[in-house]
Design brief:
With about 250 residues, the protein is an all-alpha fold. The protein has two domains: about 10-95; about 120-240, Tetratricopeptide repeat domain (Serine Threonine Protein Phosphatase 5, Tetratricopeptide repeat). About 75% of the residues lie in helices and about 0% in strands. It is built from eight helices and no strands. Helix 1 packs antiparallel against helix 8 and helix 5 (about 170-185) packs antiparallel against helix 6 (about 190-205). It is rod-shaped. About 30% of the residues are buried.
Length: about 250
C-alpha cells in the first residue's frame, strides 16, 4: 500500500513539474510574440515613411517636368521674338543710308534688364540663371519681371521662383515671405498649391511642425485634386497625421 501511495506521489510531482515547464514555455512564447509585434509595428512605420517620401519625390519630379515644359515654351516664344527682331533689323539696314562714321556700339544689356524685353524673354533669362544655380541673380531677374509686369500671367510664376531660389539657398525665413506673396498675391496664379506645399516645408525646416501641418492640411482641403495635395498628404503621414482637411 505504501508503495502505491509513493508511486502516486511521484506521478503528481512529475506532472506538476511538467505543468510548470509548459507554463514557462507558454510565457516565453507570449513574450516572443509581443516582441515580434512591436518589431513589426516599427518596421511598418518605417515602410510608411519611406512610401511617403517616395511619393513626395515623385511629385517633385513631376513638378520639375511641368516647369521644364513651361520654360521651353517661354524660350520658344523668346526665339520667335528674336527672329522677328533680326528680320526687322535686316530690313532697316537695307533701307538705311550709310553714314561716314558711326559712334561706338553701346555695351550689350542683359536681356532681363533691357527696356524693351518682353515678359517671356525676362522669364526665360531668369529661369536660365536659376537652372545655372545662380540663385541670387535669378531672384533679381524674377523680381524685376514682377515689378515691370505685375498683371502678366508669368508674374505669379516668377514670384514662386523667387521663393524657390531662397529655399534652394536654405534661407527658409525669406522663402516663407516670398511664397506667402504667391498665396496672397493678385492676380492669383496656378502656383498657389505648390507655394503652400513649400510653405509647409519651410516651417518644417524651421522646426515648426504645427505650422507645417497647417499649410499641408490647407493644400489637401482647398486643392484636393492637385499634385501638391498628394504630396501634402504624404508629408502629413510622416508627421503622424491622417491628411484630413483642416477645419
Amino acid at each position: 500500500m505504501a508503495a502505491v501511495s509513493g508511486c502516486a506521489s511521484d506521478e503528481r510531482a512529475q506532472r506538476a513539474q511538467e505543468m510548470a515547464t509548459l507554463r514557462s514555455q507558454v510565457e516565453e512564447l507570449r513574450k516572443s510574440q509581443e516582441a515580434n509585434a512591436r518589431e513589426l509595428a516599427r518596421l511598418s512605420g518605417e515602410v510608411k515613411a519611406v512610401d511617403a517620401q517616395s511619393a513626395f519625390l515623385a511629385g517633385e519630379a513631376k513638378a520639375a517636368g511641368e516647369e521644364r515644359a513651361r520654360v521651353k515654351a517661354a524660350l520658344d516664344e523668346s526665339d520667335k521674338t528674336l527672329r522677328e527682331l533680326r528680320s526687322a533689323v535686316e530690313e532697316l539696314s537695307k533701307a538705311a543710308i550709310p553714314s561716314p562714321a558711326a559712334p561706338p556700339a553701346a555695351a550689350p544689356t542683359p536681356r532681363s534688364s533691357a527696356p524693351d524685353a518682353s515678359p517671356e524673354q525676362m522669364y526665360a533669362a531668369a529661369m536660365a540663371s536659376f537652372q545655372a544655380e545662380e540663385h541670387g541673380q535669378a531672384v533679381l531677374e524674377f523680381t524685376e519681371l514682377t515689378r515691370k509686369f505685375p498683371e502678366h500671367p508669368l508674374a505669379a510664376n516668377a514670384q514662386y521662383w523667387v521663393g524657390e531660389a531662397y529655399y534652394r539657398q536654405r534661407d527658409f525665413r525669406q522663402a516663407l515671405v516670398e511664397f506667402r506673396k504667391v498665396v496672397d498675391g493678385v492676380p492669383k496664379g496656378s502656383q498657389i498649391p505648390d507655394a503652400l506645399l513649400k510653405i509647409g516645408l519651410c516651417h518644417r525646416a524651421l522646426r515648426d511642425q504645427a505650422r507645417a501641418r497647417e499649410a499641408w492640411e490647407q493644400v489637401a482641403k482647398e486643392y484636393p485634386g492637385t499634385n501638391a495635395a498628394t504630396q501634402a498628404r504624404s508629408l502629413l503621414a510622416t508627421l503622424g497625421g491622417t491628411g484630413r482637411p483642416a477645419r
